[in-house]
Amino acid sequence: MASPVITERAPEKTPRRDHRSRGLRRGEGVAGWLFVSPVVVILGVFLFLPVLMALWVSVSDWGGRGSPLSPNVNFVGLDNYGELTSGQGLRSRDFGTALRNNAWYVFLVVPLQTALSLFLAVLVSRRMMKARGFFRTAFYFPSVTSSVAITVLWIFLFSAAGPVNALIAAVTGGKGPNWFNDPRGIVHLLFGVFGVDAAPAAISQPGFLGLSGWDWIAGPSVAMSAFIIMAVFTTSGTFMLLFIAALQNVGYELTEAGMMDGASAWQRFWRITLPQLRPTLFTVITLGLIGCWQVFDQIYTGTKGQPGKTTITPAYLSYTSAFSNQDWGIGAAIAFILFLIIIAFTLLQRWLLRERPVSKRRIRAYTPKGARS
Amino acid sequence: MTDSRTLARTKTLTDEPIDRAPQRRRRLTPASRLGQIALYGVLALLALVYIYPFLVQVATSFKSEQEAASNPISLIPQTFTTAAYERLFLNSDFPLWFANSAVVTILVTLGRVFFVSLAGYALARLRFRGRGLIFALVVGVMAVPSVVLLIPRFLVLNQLGMYDSYAGMVLPLLVDAAGVFIMKNFFESIPPSVEEQARIDGAGTFRVFWSVVLPMARPALITIVILSFQGSWNELTHFIVSVQDPGLFTLTRGVASLSSGQLSQGTQYPLKLAAAALMTIPVAVVFFIFQKRIMNTSEGAVKG
């Protein structure tokens, strides 16, 4: 990146000197701009411009009629943001509910998909493995299908009389839940087992974003849990590939040294292999966090936020606020808050997983993955 | 000294792990053989969990609606019927959705391959003022999550009068920042001497790019094709905010509307599952054609 800039101005100032290089580099500046112009124009018009416009809408009272840039649209400051975070009224409550739903989703999906994909990668990376191509394909295939197709399949699998419940009945003899119609939170259900069926007085009052403490700890609803399983199912294959590539770069000599020293396979994995996978772990968790805060397709295709609003997510709420309720300012404000949340989470986990000076091998192991993402 | 030996060793190990297998197998103790069996048992079970949903999907699409409800687990329909498919092809908008998806995907893929490699080449090789800035912008764009763009995209398309048009569906997808990044990395890995030779022979910049550099970039281009094809075929959010006219629905949009009950009375699982299975076929075909590459993308994307 740095070196090519040096000679940039030279030809202009001294047109006669360095004639041959000028001949070779003739018109390169123009060509350079021509080559990047399609990308620049499209990113500018369909990315930067939209973001700026939405930023304006989020601080305006535009109601969806005419252009948001017309003179009779007013600047309202941070009113939309204020309304969302006030804890008063339906919009704030819905926003709180959406955050609650998505936070539980992130909290469960990210660790599960990371652990499962690492587990699969380790299994199919065994040196004396037969048919590993077959297994890798099997685990990766769900990742290529579209979220719409998978959601349609999932709604069937988890329908009241669907295959999953049929399986539950066959194995346990019991009756499975009515998955996508069950709004009960699984943490509440867990409390129910111990006889706690209603909110203890201490956490029954409306609190942060209009939700009581009892509501916040409800856990994902049974319906959302089906989506959580789906997310783990569809993403584990992609992340497995990242881990497989990283495992290939893990030096075997350290593992061998561990064997010599009598470390068990379990110890070798935790003490020798895993530390070397740290950069990939970092990538997987980052991508997982970014992806999980953007749950939209599944909800749009499947439940539309039902049952009992337990599957609305900030992304979906942003969409319905704007397109269905014509609350454009609110919708745009939700999108930007979501953006901030994603940035905050990425920075937080960056800080948690921060690393001391990196070895050459780790850098090498990391580069391909970073580029792929 | 030790370093180079270690390196060489790592290389042989990663390059040909399978060759070493037979030699090791002979040394298996009964205990580790048991472990081996357990490993395959676990893998087989996991593979079943991953594959079975798709098998039951295809099977159910050939069942009658009653059977789909009464016997959801079985993989062989008792009464084999193609009613769902007939209905989809003869009595729904499915063929239209399919055509729209195909048009958009082909245009987007072609456009992306061209624009992304042009920009990647310029950022990697050409010297022009503002190059660093543009690269920084491209990287910055990769950080913007797509759901944040839902409302903004609509606003701009509406403002530009491109709402409900093919232009509005295709243009915003034509450029992919990650693709620019991949191509730039790839071009930087090609030695510049080849191009310089062509330049000395008097070829212009575009000529050098088109007939010298691009043919060398085949592996990276294939990566871009795979990513663009999958990305645009499976894209949903952009088509939600760019069109309203049912005549412009793509498969994702159409099947999503099917799922929320547009055509249906009752559950209609065979019909919905048939639609979902059909829309998976093109990406599945691309996947199986390029399987080797995809399975190695993490390396291939960059090193080619």
Q: What name does the CATH topology of the largest domain in chain B carry?
A: MetI-like fold
Mean pLDDT of chain B: 79
The helicity of chain A comes to 55-70%
Q: Which CATH class of the largest domain in chain A applies here?
A: Mainly Alpha
The number of strands of chain B is: 0
- What is the CA-atom radius of gyration of chain A, in angstroms? 26 Å
CATH superfamily of the largest domain in chain B: MetI-like
Number of extended strands of chain A: 0
- CATH architectural name of the largest domain in chain A: Orthogonal Bundle
Tell me the domain tally of chain A.
Answer: 2
Q: What's the total helix number of chain A?
A: 18
Class by alpha and beta content of chain A? mainly alpha
Biggest interface pair, counts: A-B, 108 and 116 residues
Structural commentary:
The complex is a heterodimer of chains A (373) and B (304). By secondary structure, chain A is an all-alpha fold. Chain A has two domains: 1-47, no CATH class; 88-185 and 220-372, MetI-like fold, CATH 1.10.3720.10. Chain A is built from 18 helices and no strands. Chain A has helices at residues 10-13, 19-24, 28-58, 79-85, 89-124, 132-144, 147-157, 163-172, 186-193, 213-216, 222-249, 252-260, 265-276, 278-292, 297-301, 314-323, 328-352, 360-372. In chain A, α12 packs antiparallel against α13 (265-276) and α14 (278-292) packs parallel to α18 (360-372). In chain B, 73% of the residues lie in helices and 0% in strands. In chain B, α3 crosses α16. The longest helix of chain B has 32 residues, at 30-61. At the A-B interface, α3, α5, α6, α7 and α8 of A face α1, α2, α3, α4 and α6 of B.
